[in-house]
Every structure is written in C-alpha cells, then in structure tokens.
Amino acid sequence: MNSQSSRGRSMPSSALRHLATVVSAAALMLVAACGGTTGNETSSDEGANDSSKPLIYGVFATPLEEPWDGAIHAALTQAAEDGEIEYKHVDSLSTSDAMERGLRDIATNEQPDAIIGDAFAAEEAVRKVAAEFPDIPFAFGSGEKPAPPNLSVFDNWLQDPAYLSGMLAGGLTKSNTIGVVGAMPIPEVNRIVNAFVMGVQETNPEATVKVSFINSFFDPAAAKQAAQAQVSAKADVLFAERDGVIAAAKDADLPVIGMMVDQMDEAPGHVATSLIWNMRPTVDAVIAQAKNGPEAVDLGKYSFMQEGGSELAPLNTGIVGGIPDDLAKRVEAKKQAILDGSFKTPVDESAPSGSIDVSKS
Fold this sequence. Notes:
The protein is of the alpha/beta class.
C-alpha cells in the first residue's frame, strides 16, 4: 500500500495539514519559551497556509514568463485571490528527471489536494509519479490520453481565436506576406497555426503565410531571430506563437498578434490583439476534483471559446497603421458565429504547409 492510499483511507489531506499546523504551532511556542530560534521561515507568495481550503500545487517545466504556463498560473492565482484555494507553485523543472523528483517530493511532503502543470516535455515522468499517488488528482497539459484513476489532461484548444486573429492579419497585411513563429510542429501547435492560416485565407486569399518553428517551447532569442528573418522576407504582420516575436515586431514597427494572454502592454503601438487562453474553467474543474476525488478525464473542452476558455483580446485600433472598421466588423461577426455555434473552426493538426524548422537550418 503506498503512502497516498493510506492517507486517503485514514484522514483527508486538508485535515492532516490542519493537524500539522497545530503541532507546529505548539512546537514554536515551546521553542520561544526556551529562548530558542527556528531560523529563517518562508511561506508561499500567496500567504500563509489555510487548511480549510484545498491546496493546489502548480508544477511547471518552463519559467512562468513563458505564456503557456503563465496562463495556468494566472488562473490559479485568481482562484487563490478569490479565496477558493491555497496555491503554491514551482517552475523551471525543465528535464524529465527534475520533473519526476519535483512531483514526487511535492506529493510526499506537501500532500496537496491536486497537482496541475505541463507534461509535454516530461510525459513519462508525470504519468509515472501520478500512478504512485492515486489519491491525488493530477491534471496536466498533454497531447496524450487521460490515465485512470487520477490523471486528467487538458490542452490549449485555441483554434477559435486563432482563426479570428488570422482574419485580422489577412486584412492588415499590405505586402501579402505574414510571418508565424511557433514552437515545434506538434498537434497542439499545428492546430493553432493552421486555424490562423485559414482565417488569413478568408479575408485575403492572395496572402502567403510563412511559418517557422524554433524547436523549443521557450527560446525568446531564437524566436526573435526567426521573426526578423520573416521580416527580411517581406512579412509585414507577425503572429507571436512564441515569446520573442513581439520584440522583433516592435523593432520593425509592424503589427503583431500576441499569444496566451493579452500582450498589448508589451508593445502598445504594435500588438493588434492576442489569443487569450482563459484557464479558469479548467482550474475550476480541477478544484472540483480536489474536493470530490480524482478522475481521469479529458478537460480539453474547457478551453473552447463557447465554454469561456478562450477568447480574442479587444482589437487595438492604436497600432501602427490602424485597423479598418470594416475588417473589425468582419472579425466580430465571425466571433458571434463561433459563439452561437453557426461556425465551427476546423481542427487541422497536420504540419503547416511549407513550414521551416529554423533550429535545423
């Protein structure tokens, strides 16, 4: 019997944390009475532990500056600020070994009520540790299937705002050349890029979309360099699927589409809009598991626009060159069609036609 099975059958983790808090407080009082010291004490960024709330632990492979994990972190932070959870996190577990060690340590010592994070670069490690702690709900970004009894999966199904932003880019380009810089040609990236390209074709069938992959989830320098190469090839609108492209657009004084969160503040005169991943519906589903027990389900639907899991940021008419009113109206009309179900964005997860892996060139 593993430790988590014993924990689940004897006392809930929140009760265990409450008991530990009481014992710790008594120990601190004894130390203080004896004139001792406990050394440097630290707490999570979100404040002191509250055993009445479920503890959700964010475990991320990349730095939180990377927008994908940043979107998850933002939703968890919001849930903590709303008083629904206690939230702790760790990031930059960039290798499978680091992810496995980190997850096992957190599950054993913190005994969280749920763990959420990204598994793409460490799929085997995440599934291995989840199986060792079947009483803890694990919910991870993954291109694979759920694993009973406790590993749920989700992904950034952003094809809807991607299509809308493509329509915008198609109407903004004057050179009929648009540049996209993505992570790598995997399904979860391909479907966003392909939806973007389809949107471009709706408003501008004559436009060419150049797609470059940097073969990394987080390499801003490589992404910026790839974007600069596209600008040199006459691209006059860019899509920043990866961090680093907005900086290139700003340097070149061109409009750019942001990703995951509203990135207008990074370059107010250049970010025309952003694909927004609202992770709160997914996080709420994970909180429900933390309270009611683990499941092994696909949470992907919670990222769809109709579910409130994704959206297009408000159009920024203050960008260089502006946004024509008739183009904005076309984008808005298509958005309403997506929301009322009269238009369903096609999902194409094949590698985009003519794409280039710049990391190998």
